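Thread title: Can someone regenerate the structure for this chain?

I was given the following input by a collaborator and told the matching structure tokens would be attached. They weren't. Posting the sequence so someone can regenerate them.
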Amino acid sequence: MKFLIDAQLPRRFVIWLTEAGHDALHTLDLPLKNGTPDNAIIARAMQDGRVVVTKDDDFVQAFLLTGEPSLLLVSSGNIANSDLEKMVRANLNRIETAFATHRFVEITRDSLVIHE
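Best answer:
Regenerated them for you:
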């Protein structure tokens, strides 16, 4: 799978996904870095076939209005990066399976929610 990690998530997220065999970029890898506007992030994700990984509700609103981009919403609240990594690694197989048939998945500290 291909992912684009939004600015408010750690760059290490790219490493976690890459180690699991995925293609991942962080907004820091884009020309405008973390200053990249949401519409440009969405355009890049659509162009590359990437899932946007974010904590930002603005992407949820865009998805609800347009059906784009494919979205992994991280709804963990404030969390240490080490705990975030454990949460992602523990759920990665389920995330991959969910995206085989769905376009909006949410991960919380306790569950994986697949939005229809």
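The chain has one domain: 2-115.
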